[in-house]
Design goal:
heterodimer; A: 117 residues; seven-stranded mixed beta sheet; four-stranded antiparallel beta sheet; 51% strand; globular; B: mainly beta; 0% helix
Chain lengths: 117, 112
């Protein structure tokens, strides 16, 4: 079955612009989580959506937002881009919401690499 | 605040050597996962351990969950260049309403 698809893979923006990233989860997966990854910082949790509802949110400013559609596809938006927003943005899908149990596994996409100039 | 500390942050060794990567916390986790991420890709799950003291083997990789479920280790025997990548550990909080806690990762380079 198809994996998690993220688009675009690479993009370059300038400060002050906004960006929208897309994530198509594995068919049947209702949970989509977004992470920001920067060198040395590991994965920073942005938010999680389950059945079109935001279930959890990390400690990011309001410039970072997201949504999930009825087909489980998700988008995240970053407004008023700053240089520090340059990062790899990863999307992961899973069957269930919340923390990991032995049965709930995160499958990641390849990410969208954002460069802010 | 729950934290997972990984060590070392960076490791570069020759092919054929053995190595161990550690993931430590002062908090108890319901489970712990290890992922490997290669350049240009997202993390891929290697293993999930859920029982204190549990040991799982995946070919040359051995994963252990501490008895108190606060720490874990990944041991690679006879490392190969294909093992190169970023290794991430992630702990499942006892409260299932909270998200995974991630370590910062260990960047491993195996030189031929």
């Amino acid at each position: 079955k198809a994996g998690v698809t993220q688009t675009p893979r690479y993009l370059i923006k300038t400060r002050g612009q906004q960006v929208t990233l897309s994530c198509s989860p594995i068919s049947g997966h209702r949970s989509v989580s977004w992470y920001q990854q920067t060198p040395g910082q590991g994965l920073q949790f942005l938010f999680e959506y389950f059945s079109e509802t935001q279930r959890n949110k990390g400690n990011f400013p309001g410039r970072f937002s997201g949504r999930q559609f009825s087909n489980s596809r998700s988008e995240m938006n970053v407004s008023t881009l700053e240089l520090g927003d340059s990062a790899l943005y990863l999307c992961a899908s899973s069957l269930a919401s919340g923390s990991i149990s032995g049965a709930n596994v995160l499958t990641f996409g390849a990410g969208s690499r954002l460069t802010v100039l | 605040t729950q934290l997972l500390e990984q060590s070392p942050q960076f490791l570069s060794i020759q092919e054929g050597e053995n190595l161990t990567v550690y993931c430590n916390s002062s908090s108890v986790f319901s489970s712990l996962q290890w992922y490997r991420q290669e350049p240009g890709e997202g993390p891929v799950l290697l293993v999930t351990v859920v029982t204190g003291g549990e040991v799982k083997k995946l070919k040359r990789l051995t994963f252990q969950f501490g008895d108190a479920r606060k720490d874990s280790s990944l041991h690679i025997t006879a490392a190969q260049p294909g093992d190169t990548g970023l290794y991430l550990c992630a702990g499942g909080p006892m409260d299932s309403n909270y998200q995974l806690i991630w370590g910062a990762g260990t960047k491993l380079i195996i030189k031929p």
